[in-house]
Amino acid sequence: xxxxxxxxxxxxxxxxxxxxxxxxxxxxxxxxxxxxxxxxxxxxxxxxxxxxxxxxxxxxxxxxxxxxxxxxxxxxxxxxxxxxxxxxxxxxxxxxxxxxxxxxxxxxxxxxxxxxxxxxxxxxxxxxxxxxxxxxxxxxxxxxxxxxxxxxxxxxxxxxxxxxxxxxxxxxxxxxxxxxxxxxxxxxxxxxxxxxxxxxxxxxxxxxxxxxxxxxxxxxxxxxxxxxxxxxxxxxxxxxxxxxxxxxxxxxxxxxxxxxxxxxxxxxxxxxxxxxxxxxxxxxxxxxxxxxxxxxxxxxxxxxxxxxxxxxxxxxxxxxxxxxxxxxxxxxxxxxxxxxxxxxxxxxxxxxxxxxxxxxxxxxxxxxxxxxxxxxxxxxxxxxxxxxxxxxxxxxxxxxxxxxxxxxxxxxxxxxxxxxxxxxxxxxxxxxxxxxxxxxxxxxxxxxxxxxxxxxxxxxxxxxxxxxxxxxxxxxxxxxxxxxxxxxxxxxxxxxxxxxxxxxxxxxxxxxxxxxxxxxxxxxxxxxxxxx
Amino acid sequence: xxxxxxxxxxxxxxxxxxxxxxxxxxxxxxxxxxxxxxxxxxxxxxxxxxxxxxxxxxxxxxxxxxxxxxxxxxxxxxxxxxxxxxxxxxxxxxxxxxxxxxxxxxxxxxxxxxxxxxxxxxxxxxxxxxxxxxxxxxxxxxxxxxxxxxxxxxxxxxxxxxxxxxxxxxxxxxxxxxxxxxxxxxxxxxxxxxxxxxxxxxxxxxxxxxxxxxxxxxxxxxxxxxxxxxxxxxxxxxxxxxxxxxxxxxxxxxx
Lengths: 532, 255
Ligand SMILES: Nc1ncnc2c1ncn2[C@@H]1O[C@H](COP(=O)(O)OP(=O)(O)OP(=O)(O)O)[C@@H](O)[C@H]1O
Ligand SMILES: [Mg+2]
Description:
The structure holds two protein chains of two kinds.
Chain A: H1 5-31, H2 47-78, H3 84-91, H4 99-110, H5 115-120, H6 129-152, H7 158-165, H8 170-181, H9 183-199, H10 202-207, H11 214-224, H12 228-251, H13 271-299, E1 301-303, E2 307-310, H14 313-320, H15 323-355, H16 358-369, H17 375-386, H18 395-405, H19 408-420, H20 425-432, H21 436-447, H22 449-465, H23 484-490, H24 494-526
Antiparallel strand pairs in A: 1-2
Chain B: E1 8-17, E2 20-30, E3 35-39, H1 46-54, E4 61-66, E5 69-70, E6 81-85, H2 96-102, H3 114-124, H4 140-152, E7 158-162, H5 170-187, E8 190-194, H6 198-204, E9 207-212, E10 215-220, H7 222-227, H8 232-239, H9 242-254
Parallel strand pairs in B: 3-8, 3-9, 6-7, 7-8
Antiparallel strand pairs in B: 1-2, 1-4, 4-5, 9-10
Helix pairs in contact in B: 2-3, 2-4, 3-4, 6-9
The structure holds adenosine-5'-triphosphate and magnesium ion.
């Protein structure tokens, strides 16, 4: 039974897509390094400090994010605290806001005129190295948490029962059973957070003050000075840690694949332990909620920090400055990316997980390689590749760059979900005269409907908050909403900038709620267990 | 009955995966209404053989004849064969009834009667009470029954089984065994059955095919295989625990 023509065509189309949308632009970017002038930036006085700052901030933020992620996951899995579901949603809240917004929230709290600063009469200011670290933790913690929690909550309890019987102390159990079990997700999370932080320019732009990091340097060179070639050189340097992270992650594959038999944990009653759990999770929740609440607050004051009386005027002001149009831009981009991206990623996952063959392996690699390209580098490479083409300066290029930028995670969702569905279904289909496409449509899509919605939601939320890949490509007409934060902030329209962050957050929350509702509905209709 | 042409003839079947030989040219015949078991260690090519028989896999060389007609290049749904897998391969987004009806959806002639055909087949397998349940509410044995019903409604002349019982508990296996035998006697369907359970093979089969390393070492009745193993390999393979197997076989037959 040969593989049908349609599938071969799909496969070729997908490979071409990656060639045009990822490989060629990157090659173009690298080609600009051939010009010796592009190397000058490496000997400039800002370069080395920026490098050192970037690496040390990313390392510290990574360690902090991982520790907190481990702590919170542990509390969720080993104590009887109530409201775990709500807390877990809260932990991921920062993912729904642009990193610019998180940075801004910190400034409102701890900046020179910050609420906490004034309240406590502090003299220190957040601007600088440690401010960036705090913001970076806020920004990267949710990703670390999701990776660690997902694995820890599926942990098999039987080794611990055996250890209990043998009288092995809890601390040794943690070191001897839990940590080895979490080794792979911890490594994945370590590299994910490192890459996130080292390539983000939103937080350091807002709270960095005089402390410059590599992405900020790149941003200033390209946006401020229009030095595209210098930007490309820095982009090349940013590509290095991301590529290393990616390689380690690929070698570290199989994020703790679960055995079939898994014993659920019985959590003993222990008031004191639970109390400590509440304290820990409560503290993290407050740390997450404060910067968010504060920009909600600032959105509705007359003039921060001079006149804190309530007003709805900032909404009108923002709308007069076209925030509404930019919001529509964002929605259009997010919806287009979600629709097209989900279809492409699902098809790719279908081919690599269920059709197989050598070229499928190449496709798989191509799909996950997009993980290694920082958004800001991808965006700049698009400037080089598409300048002067019909795409340049349109919504289309923003859609394309976002699809590529966020492709890997939804692809992996599809790949894993489709790989888990019984691999003999197509064989059964062949014996009853149902083609591959029929099985895909009648069986696989319904069975993985939950995953498809998750993919859609991932694309959507990330398109709403992203600032990296689109920064160099957007024009004043097609700019997405999140980029307006820097504009307003630069024009000292602080309250409007806060309102824009709030608008992004609200949009994401509404969509998340909608997705959750649709998912529940679909699951019920398909008669699948809610967990599938 | 004088056997004119066998139900199924396999000649010179060869298959390589990535240059590695998995089947080295195997020949065998299966008679009409026969129950043939395939035994052999893991990786010896049992599943590969079955997939070629039903057309899910193309052989590199060799032919498959059904009633003397060459079907080597025919599509899987053109061979009057059905297949039952170890892990059931059910459509989990459909009900029990939905699974069986779906198998008839692509049959132009019987499509319109699929509801009653499915109900009848499911009743025969004792699944009437479960007919509108979703798959995940069924036990392993019930799921395997659904998958058998889904195959039976195709009215296949040959049913292939790839370790259908190995995910089931012992008790369920024993009752399913009897049920399979019953189906075969009732419908006269030819059955080819891969198993790792020698006892099962001896209890069910008219003949047993012992494979090893992509070749057939012996194809004969259970009695002959025990009494006159064709070579050292077969003797070794079958002899382990032979006494115990035979004892339990005797006990099973006495029931
Ligand atoms: N699609 C494939 N690509 C590459 N190699 C394969 C493929 N399918 C099977 N093989 C290899 O062919 C050999 C025979 O496989 P097959 O599945 O036929 O074994 P089997 O006898 O059914 O084993 P088991 O008892 O474990 O099911 C194995 O070494 C297997 O790794
Ligand atoms: Mg097999």
